[in-house]
Amino acid sequence: xxxxxxxxxxPTSRKVRIVLGEKKIAFDMKVEPVWERRRDFLAxxxxxxxPVLVEPDGSAISDATAICExxxxxxxxxxxxxxxxxxxxxxxxxxAWFDRKFDHEVTENLVGEKIMKRFxxxxxxxxxxxxxxxxxxxTHMEYITYLSERRRWLAGEAMSLADISAAAHLSTAxxxxxxxxxxxxxxxxxxARIKSRPSFRPILEDYIPGAPPVKHYKDLDF
Length: 222
Hints:
By secondary structure, the protein is α+β, with helices and mostly antiparallel strands. Helices cover 54% and strands 7% of the residues.
């Protein structure tokens, strides 16, 4: 059985979980407290970051996008990287947008301040960073709306890793109740389609002790 080392509100871990679900690949999960810098985990990934996928033969693959590329190669259906080279380039561009830009501008300022600081013992959340994250989130919601109005899915006509990456990041902000869905109906409609997929359902069951999700988090109709 494959094992995925992850953290509950790690967007990139969630991305890999959804891809595994889409491709119907069975796996176990282990929460990895990366702040402890465990020697056994560093042996799997010297960077000390999740996600890490350990194959049945014991080999380890780290970095979310590398894992997703690997899963696409060993389980091509359903294809998540576009039907043509041009679509593939757009999928990868948007994956980088959310895994880098969204993560830096939104996820770090919201999840990092509200949740991770508590686990790391780094003091009280920085209200300025939280406000910046909430402001930046609106900009990204406008971009998702722009894409949703022009395409069936974010990168084209078929659902792809771009949608999964975007939804994985948004789901962490939504867990905290920070997504202004009512102001962005097109983005909300797109997210509802992702949220209702069987591969996404386990994400909606995540629960952090002492920090429960907002009431609408599990509601498929918001």
